[in-house]
Structure to design on (1768 residues):
C-alpha cells in the first residue's frame, strides 16, 4: 500500500445526530460497543511516513471508524430507506442486501425498505420497473445465490430524475452499491440533495471485482473471484500439459488493474506468464512475449498464460475511444487477439501448437460469495446502516489497515488503485512464474 | 434405449487361452469370482423385443460379460503392454490409466507397461516423443488431476508405422482409450496385426464426453461433464435474472448428440430453451426460436438457453466440409452465431436485451472425474486388462444393461448414439423447460 | 444383480383408467410419448436365466414401464394430492417434491397439492402440524437446499388415523417417499384404503441412502453420498499419513448393506480396509483385522479404514434388540468400538499409534443432490405422478435394467438388497484395497 | 485489534549480513524490490494510541518489514537448511513447504534442503525417521493435497538433542512451522544455539488453525477452516429444520479462542447460538442456555448451535489438569456434554427433541488451503526464507496491519489472542444470531 496524500478526511453530515440509538437499552447500557469521536485509524502507517508527517503542521491524517453511534440522526419509526445495486454482477451483492435489510429491520426498527430494481433504471419512471418491498422474509435464503435479487443495469441516468424519485418516495437513506461510475453518480446525487436542502443520506458500498478502487484496500467479491479463477487455471494447465506444445490461455477480469490475474497466478502456481495493464510488454522482438513463450515451449513442452482483460490495449489502434453504457472505454478483446497472434507466430515458424482459450468471466461474476467474502459483506452492510442512521452522507464504507472506516466518497473516486510494478505482489508473481520483463530495448 | 440389430456378438481371440490365471491361488481357489462362457447378458431386454426375437431362428442376441477368466492367453512374466490416450481430454483418463497399471502390475504380475505419449503420435518415430515407463509409483496421486498424464493428440497416423512400433517394442496388449475415430483406427491396427500374424491384443475403452458411441449406454466422464455444466447454467441464470431482458446463453459439448445439453438442463432446471443437433429448429418465423424467446422475455423478463455445439449446423452454408485433425467435420460456432442472431433480432425490434455468453468447454474437459465416474473408470480399466490377458482383441469394454460387457469394436463404431426426439429424455426436457417444437410449417 | 424370483409383477389399480390424459392435445397428438400395455422390461436378463425361464411354463417375468398413459383414472380438475417424506434425510428429497408438484400442476392441471409436515406425524391430529400448500412458487429455488422442505420424522403412526386423515382431506393420490419401514406402512395404508373401498392411490418412492432396497437397482441420494464420502476418506488419509503410525477411521452409512462403504472405497482409493455387514470378520487372532492392521502399519506407516455402521454387530452382546422410533434395531456404535479396540491392542503391544476418527453421517444426509441424482429424482417424481394419475396403487417407482418401472410395493419390501461377497463390487474392493479375508480358521 | 504493549521489537541476528544477495543481478539491479532498514510499520495505528505514544519518550513502536535484503548473512552455495512441521494438521502446510523450497532453490541457489519427518521426532535418533531430501520435484503437485508431506507429531523433545542433530547435519537455517508450543520450543532451541555459539538461524511460521497467536492478526489455514465449517452449519441447519424440534449442534475448533466459531456463524447465518471460551455462560437457570434454547424451539421449531471445543470448560470439575502430548490441557468434550445436557433437560420437561451432532474437526484440518490461504502461505514461506538468509533468528513471520513483518518469537508467544467480548466480531455475532448474554444474576 503506497503513501496516500489526503488532507480532508471529514465526512459530511446532513444534520445533527441528536436521537438516541435504538441499539442502546433504556438504561443506556447495550450489548453493543459504540464508536466514539476519537476512534480513528491512521491513513498512513509506515514509520517513515509518520515521521515525515510529524514534521508537517496539522494532525496526522486519519479516517473515522465505521460502526454504531450512541446518537443518530434519523428517527427510525418514520424512516424509509432505499437500496440499489448497479453495474456488473459481483459475488456478495445478496449478502450486502441481506445485511442492510436485517440491520435496519431488527436493530434500528426500520419497517419500510425499498429495493430499487435494475440499478439506476429503477428510479426512472420511463422504465416502469416495480419497486421491491424488502423485509427479513424477502432476504431469507438468498446468501447461496449469486447475482443480485434486485437486479442491476449499466449506465448513467439523469441525476435530477433520481432525486425527484427519492423526494417522491420520501426516502431518508439511499444505499448505493456500485463501482467507480456509480460512486461518481452518488456524489452528484448527494450534491443535488444538499442543493435542494433535503435530508437524505447517500451511503456507498464500493463494488469492484477488480479490486481497483482507490483507498479501498479490499473490495468484496475479489477473493471469491480469485478462488474460482484458480479452477480455470487448473483446467488450462491440464489442457496445455495434455498436448504437444499445448498452450493454455485464460482471460481474467481486470480492466485497468491486474489484481485478479496476479493473485490467481499466486494461488494456483501453474502459470508461466501473467499479463496485466500496469506492466507494459511487447509481443514481437527478442525480448517480447512470443519469443519468451517459444523458449518456454522448447524447454517444457507446454505453457499457461493468464491475461487481464485490460492488458495490452496498446495493440489496438483506432478503437476510437468507444465506450459502453457505463461510460467505460470499450476494450478490445486481448484474449482473442493474443490467441491469434500466437497462432500466427508459431505457424510462421512451422511449430505446431495447441492453443486452448478459456474466458470464465461470467461464471465468476455470477457466483455467490465464499465464506470469507460473506463475512466481509455482512460487516460492510451493517456499517453502511450505522453510517446512514448517523446522518453521514457522501461517504463510502471501506476497509483500511484492518479497520472498517468512513471514506469521503470523492476521495475514493479520485483515482484508481493499481498493481505496483515494483511492489510485493508483482515481485511475487515474477518469482513464482519465473517470468522476466518482456520489453525490447527502445 | 432402442432396439439394437446385431447378429454377430462374437469376440475375436488371438489364440487359445490355456494359461492358468495368476488370480487363482495354487490350489485353484480365489477371492475373485470368475466369468464363465455362459455368462452373457441379453442385448435387447424389452419384453416385446424378446418375444419377436424368439419367433426368429437362432439364439437371442447377447454380449459376453467382461471380467476375469480362469484361463488366459498371456504368460504375464514375459508380457509387455502399451497404453495410449487419444483425442480430446475427458474426465477419467487418469483413473483408467491408473487402474490398468495397478491391475496389470499387482494382480497379473506384469512388470513392463509403456505409456505412449501424446496419442497416436507416440508410436511414430518422427515426433520423437519419449515412452513413459508405468508402474504403481507413476500413477500414485493422479486421480485428483484432470487431463491425461500421458498426454494426447488428435488426428490419425499411418497404421503400418504404428504396428511396426508395436512389433519393435514387442508389445503383447495395446490398450487404446479414445473416441470414434480412435476406435476405427484400432480396428485397422488390429486387422493389420492379424494380417501380420502377430500375437497382439488390441483392447479399446470408448471415450466420448458427448456420450454418443453406439451400444455404449454410458461413457466415462459424461456425468462429470453434466455435473459441472450445471455451474455454467447457474451462472448464466444469475446473469440473465440480473438485468432487464437478460439472456444467458451457454454452449455445451455435443457435436452430433445433445446428451450433455439435455441432461444438464434436467439437472439444473433454470433452462428455458435447449437446442440440440437431433431436433431441428428454425430461428425466424412465427414458430421459430427468436419469436419464442421474445415471448418468454415479455412474460418473465429473462431467459436461459443451452445450445449443444453441433446444433443448428444448417445455418452455416458453404462451410465446405472442412475437417479438423481428427477428421471430424469442423463445426461452425453456433454459440457465436446465436448470440449475433439474437442481438440483431431484438435490435431490429427496438428491444434492449443483455446477452451473456458462456462457453465452459475446456474447463469441463480438463476436470478430474467425480466419484461416480471414478468408480466407473476403475471397472473399465480392470475389465480391459482382464479382456487383454484373455487374448481378446478388436474388443471394447462397454456398459450394457447394467453389466460390463465385451462389444465387438466394429459394432460399436458402426453408427452413432443420439437423443431420440420421441424418447424419455427429450420428453423430460420439453416438460421441464416448457419449450415447444420450434419449426414453422413447411 | 442376482437372479430375482418373482412371479407376480402385476400392479393393483383402484379403478378403470378411462379419462383421456391432459398430456394429449385435443386432436390426440402430443409432444410426449406414451407408455403402452406392451411396454415391459424383463426382470432377469442374463442369458442363462432366460434360457432356464423359457423351459418353464408361463411368460417371462417382466415389469411394466413407468411413464405417462393415454388413459388415466383421475379427473385432475377435482383431484387433491398429498405428499409426505419420512425417515432420515437423504439428498434429493427436495428434487422429488419439486418434480411431483410441477408435474401435477403444469402438466396434469392439479391445483390442490398438500405437503404433510414431518413425516407420518403430519397425518395425526395430536401433533398439530400444519399442512403446507404446495404450488410452483413454493418449490422454486429448493433444489440447492438439502433436507426436505416438508420435514420428516421417524417411527410409525396408527394406520387407521392416517386413512381417516386422507378421507377427511379428500385425497386422491398419496405420494410417500421413504424407506423400508415407510413402504411397509404404505402397504398397510393402501390395504386399509382398499378395505374401506376408497379411491385413493398410494404411490411410493423408495428412499434409502444405503441403497439397500430389494429390486431397486439404484436409489436416489446414494451417488451423492458416495461423492461426499470421498471427502472424508481424503481427510482421513491425510491425517493418517501425517503422523507416525497414523490410522484414519471413517464410519459411513450402511445399517445392513455396505454399498456406500464399498463404493466410496473404490471412488477414493486411499482405503486399506473396508468392513461391511455382509462380510464377517474377526478382530483378534492371526487372521483377524487387528493383526492385518499391524502388518500394514509395519509396512507402510499408516492405514485408512472404512467401516459401515452395521458392520461387526456380533461384537455387541446383550444389546437386547433395542429398537429406535422407526423400529430399526438400534445398532451399537462400531466406529467407537473399533477405535477403542485398536487403541487397546496397540497399547498392549507397546506400539504408539495416532487414531483419527471421522463420522460424517449428518453432513452427508443433509446435502442437496448432485447433478446426476437431481436428474434421477426428476424422473422418479414425474413417473410417480404418471403412476398415480393412472390409478396405480401399492406401487413403487424403481429403476431396473436401465428403465423406470412399476414394482409392486410388497415385492420391493420382501427382503433387503446386500453386497454379494462373491460379486463384482466386493471383488473390486478386495483388489483395490489389497485386503484379504479376515477370518480365523474355526 | 487492541493496543499492544511492546517496547522491544528488535530482531536477533546471528551475525553481520555482508554477503550480496543473489537476488541482485551482477550490476546491482534487480527485478525484485528490497527492504531497507527504514521500512517499518507501526504496531499501534489508532489515532489516540499514537497521540498517547507521542507523549512518551522514545520512538513509536514498529515492526521491521519482512522481505528480501540486499545484504544477507549466508553464502547460499554452502548452506544447508532444514524444515519441520509440528503439531496438528492445518490447511496450508504443503503450500509453505513448497514456497520455502522453491525460494531457497531457485532464487537463493540453495541445493541442500532437508525435510525433517514427523515434527520434532525427526531430530531424535531413537525414532529412526528418515530425512527427506527436498527439491522442486519433491514439492510439485503437493498444493492440492491437505496434510503435510513431511508429517507431523505432537509433543516436545529434548532441546539438547535437537541442537545436536542440527550441528551434526550442519544446518544453517531451521524453519519451524508450528503453534504456540512449537514456537516456545523454537525459542529454547535458538537460545541453546546462541549459547553454543553456533551460526544457525531459527525462523518460525506461526501455525494456529484457531487463529489465536498473539500479534499474529491472521494465521494461515484459518479462512479455509471457516470456509468449510459453513458446510457443517448448512448440514446441521438442514437436519434441525427437517424434524420437529430439531437441534443441530456443531463442535468447531477453538481451544482457547472462539474465532472459528464466531466467524463461521457470520459466514453462514443459520446459527442461533454461539458458545466460545471467552464468553462465560450458564446452562441452567432463567437466563441460562437451556432456557434460551427452549424459548427458541417454542418460537421457531428448530435451532442451530455452534460450540467451540474450549467453551464451557467450567462444567468439568476434577479433570485434574491432564495434558496431551503437546502439553495442552486435555479438554473435556463440551460437544458430547452439551448433547447430553440438552437431551436430559428436554426429557425432564417432556418435550421431544431431535438432536443431531456434527464434529467436522478432522475433515477440516486435513484440507488443502483455499486460494486465499494459498497465496498467503506463499508469502509466509518466501518471507521466512528472506529472514533466514539475512541471518535473523528467534523471529516469526507475521501479518500485521496488512504488512508482512518480523516479530520477535518471544513476543508472539507471550500471551494468547482471544475474541474480545466487547469488540466488533462478537457484537456482530450477537446481532446476527439474536443471542443474548446467557448468565444468571450472581
Amino acid at each position: 500500500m503506497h503513501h496516500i496524500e489526503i488532507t480532508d478526511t471529514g465526512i459530511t453530515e446532513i444534520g445533527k445526530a441528536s436521537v438516541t440509538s435504538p441499539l442502546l437499552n433504556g438504561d443506556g447500557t447495550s450489548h453493543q460497543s459504540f464508536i466514539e469521536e476519537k476512534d480513528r485509524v491512521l491513513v498512513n502507517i509506515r514509520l517513515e511516513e509518520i515521521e515525515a508527517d510529524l514534521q508537517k503542521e496539522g494532525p496526522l491524517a486519519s479516517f473515522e471508524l465505521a460502526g454504531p453511534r450512541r446518537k443518530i440522526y434519523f428517527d427510525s419509526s418514520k424512516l424509509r430507506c432505499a437500496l440499489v445495486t448497479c453495474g456488473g454482477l459481483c459475488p456478495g451483492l445478496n449478502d450486502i442486501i441481506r445485511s442492510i435489510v436485517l440491520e435496519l429491520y431488527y436493530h434500528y426498527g426500520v419497517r419500510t425498505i425499498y429495493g430499487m430494481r435494475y440499478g439506476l433504471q429503477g428510479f426512472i419512471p420511463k422504465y416502469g420497473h416495480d419497486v421491491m418491498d424488502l423485509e427479513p422474509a424477502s432476504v431469507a435464503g438468498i446468501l447461496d445465490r449469486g447475482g443480485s435479487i434486485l437486479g442491476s443495469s449499466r449506465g448513467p441516468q439523469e441525476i435530477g430524475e433520481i432525486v425527484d424519485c427519492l423526494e417522491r418516495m420520501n426516502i431518508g437513506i439511499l444505499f448505493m452499491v456500485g463501482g467507480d461510475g456509480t460512486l461518481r453518480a452518488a456524489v452528484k446525487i448527494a450534491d443535488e440533495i444538499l442543493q435542494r436542502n433535503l435530508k437524505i443520506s447517500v451511503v456507498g458500498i464500493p463494488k469492484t471485482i477488480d479490486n481497483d478502487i482507490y483507498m479501498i484496500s479490499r473490495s468484496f467479491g475479489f477473493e471469491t473471484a480469485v478462488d474460482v479463477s484458480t479452477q480455470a487455471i487448473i483446467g488450462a494447465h491440464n489442457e496445455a500439459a495434455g498436448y504437444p506444445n499445448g498452450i493454455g490461455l485464460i482471460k481474467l477480469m481486470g480492466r485497468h488493474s491486474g489484481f485478479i490475474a496476479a493473485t490467481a497466478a499466486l494461488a494456483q502456481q501453474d502459470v508461466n506468464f501473467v499479463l496485466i495493464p500496469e506492466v507494459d510488454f511487447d509481443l514481437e522482438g527478442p525480448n517480447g512475449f512470443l519469443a519468451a513463450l517459444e523458449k518456454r515451449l522448447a524447454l517444457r513442452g507446454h505453457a499457461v498464460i493468464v491475461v487481464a482483460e485490460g492488458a495490452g490495449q496498446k495493440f489496438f489502434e483506432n478503437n476510437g475511444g468507444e465506450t459502453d453504457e457505463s461510460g467505460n472505454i470499450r476494450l478490445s478483446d486481448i484474449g482473442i487477439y493474443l490467441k491469434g497472434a500466437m497462432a500466427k507466430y508459431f505457424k510462421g515458424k512451422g511449430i505446431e501448437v495447441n492453443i486452448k482459450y478459456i474466458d470464465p468471466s461470467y461464471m465468476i461474476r455470477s457466483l455467490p460469495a465464499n465464506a470469507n467474502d460473506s463475512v466481509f459483506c455482512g460487516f460492510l452492510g451493517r456499517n453502511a446502516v450505522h453510517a446512514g442512521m448517523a446522518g453521514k452522507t457522501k461517504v463510502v464504507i471501506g476497509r483500511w489497515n484492518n479497520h472498517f472506516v468512513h471514506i469521503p466518497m470523492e476521495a475514493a473516486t479520485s483515482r484508481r488503485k493499481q498493481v505496483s510494478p515494483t511492489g510485493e505482489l508483482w515481485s511475487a508473481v515474477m518469482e513464482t512464474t519465473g517470468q522476466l520483463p518482456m520489453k525490447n530495448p527502445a
Chain C touches chain B through 57 residues (CB under 8 Å).
